[in-house]
Amino acid sequence: MRFVDVTGSREAAGRSIRLLDMARRLPQLVRRSLGLAWRVDRPATVGLLACQTLSGVVQAMGLLAISGTLTALLSSGDVLHRLVQAWPSLALLAGAAAVRAVLGITVSWLSSRLGPLMTREAEQMLLDGCTGVELCAYDEPDFNRDREAADRGAQVTGDLINEGQDLIASAASFLAGAVVLAGVHPVLLPMLVAASLPQAVAQVSAARVRYLANLRSNGDYRLLAMLRWHIYTKDAADQIRAGTMAGFLSGRYRQTVARINREDRAAADKGARMSLAGAACGGLGSAIVWAAVVGLLATGRISVGHAGTAVFALQTVGQSVRGLVSIGSRAMRTGLYMDDWTRFLDRAGGFRMRRGTCRPASPERIEIEAVCHRYAGKGGDALANVSLTLRRGEVTALVGYNGSGKSTLSKLACGLYLPTEGRVLWDGTPTGDADPHALWQHVALVPQDYARWPLTVRENITLGQPSSRGDTAVREACEAAGADEVVDKLGAGLDTLLAREWLNGEELSGGQWQRIALGRAFFRQAGLLVLDEPTANLDPRAEYRIFQRLRDLARDRIVLLVTHRITNVAVADRIVVLDEGAVVQEGTYQELARQPGLFRQLLSYQVTSDADDEKQPGPGLRRR
Ligand SMILES: Nc1ncnc2c1ncn2[C@@H]1O[C@H](COP(=O)(O)OP(=O)(O)OP(=O)(O)O)[C@@H](O)[C@H]1O
């Protein structure tokens, strides 16, 4: 059981991390991190840049002060005279150190302020991106994989500001040291950079190895997240216990963790070997540079004071080159994750809603014309050549076996899916040409798996869009759905929070939740009401009330009802029977009940099972 990256495109991207590639992309990364920082907090971004620039300048001044101090101290004359001569340089040195310390603290304060803001902003942008994709995106494995990768990218966005800042600091420090070193003797700087190259190559290679290992474990990380969710949330807690599944699930978890650990260990070992080889070559290179300094001093090409300055400058430049490479490779890895995030935002996984701009009115007629629909990755059509007209004032019922395409057809009527072939027309406008949000203003949908929002009852009914009539409208909708009885028993009425796990929250039964879900559909003044198995969890009295109300509701809207309760579909003006994605019968209850066909078959099963129920006393009756 493993999630698989079908295209392998991310692995290919990971393999492309090379030193030159990194050098090319680092400025991009810094720019991108600064761009996001600018978006969330401009003064802090300006402050950061100013502090870093100042810090580099101060460091260069400090190095020059070292040169001045050493030259003064090593010159001839008595000690007091030499100290007096060295005094201004010493003061500059101390001042530079103090200013750098203050700047360092300011930089870390500003970075810690910006980092979390950037992460939250990146998450928000991702959420906005997700709500703007076509519903069919969720049926595509690639979309789900890209979305999860983008989520990880959003999480690490905040790290990039620290890494970006460290990079700028190392670059400033490198520049300061390089200027001073080049002043001491021009041969030293290129020698030092050449000596640092092996370490740079090793560090980048090690970062690539770690990123690729992480990429290979990506599917396993997703699996762990899924298992964790099922193991520790309430949803399946009863079934894990009653089904004694705990051992099986944690065994699966352990197996997956073991796979990740194996990958991690192999990457860590390989990375360490690379770093060791790089460090050995780097050490040899450094020894050559130091030997060059000694050679220059011995041959009188540089003074003792300059040699002392070279020592400090070499240390500074060496440290900053190592910093540039190690932070650079870390930033590169973060950048690859961030690439996943930006790529997702740019294309919304390739599923951004791009429909028309027509703003349809509340529909009088919905015409479904020769519609075929095929889900992603499926070999056959869920709907094949379906034609149907839904009219305001009518209740149309869809019936058929499981998987016959009823829910798919209802979602096409709502414009949630666009048909792969054929058209769905709202008063003549194809759903693909309409502004989707304007179209959904006219839709009230109770799907089979309705959401149980952890919000108050009121918000669960209004979906955060209260009407001008306030609670009166909410109460009317509750009454229509039979949810008034539920609300009356709740401690805080409409203000009750429907989330048991939170303080003062309440839990509802399955049927009570269904009444709330119906209440929210009745509250919405929408021209199309779609009820998919609206009474599956209701008791017979509540079910009776709902079906009684349907006729009233249909007076000024189109009602589409999907149900397996065949005896109840008599309420519908028209019944459409689906079988394997095709319409096989259409007519009134009386017409279809008389004709031989699937409807009569379905009806006979239900009537027989109802009659059997009547004949066979329940267990309680038998006991008596
Ligand atoms: N999101 C999806 N991705 C892929 N296939 C899907 C998806 N939703 C439904 N299907 C497939 O489409 C076909 C029709 O499903 P649909 O949910 O429309 O049937 P239904 O008649 O509503 O079934 P039921 O009575 O069980 O609710 C089924 O074969 C199902 O497997």
From TrEMBL:
Predominant cellular place of this UniProt entry's protein: membrane
Gene Ontology CC terms, in alphabetical order: plasma membrane
GO molecular function, one term: ATP binding
Entry keyword Membrane: yes
Keywords linked to the UniProt accession: ATP-binding, Membrane, Nucleotide-binding, Transmembrane, Transmembrane helix
Location in or out of the cell: Cell membrane
Membrane topology: Multi-pass membrane protein
Gene3D superfamilies assigned: ABC transporter type 1, transmembrane domain, P-loop containing nucleotide triphosphate hydrolases
Keyword Cytoplasm: no
PANTHER family found in the cross-reference section: ATP-BINDING CASSETTE SUB-FAMILY B MEMBER 10, MITOCHONDRIAL, ATP-DEPENDENT PERMEASE MDL1, MITOCHONDRIAL
Protein name stated in the entry: ABC transporter ATP-binding protein
Protein source organism: Streptomyces albus
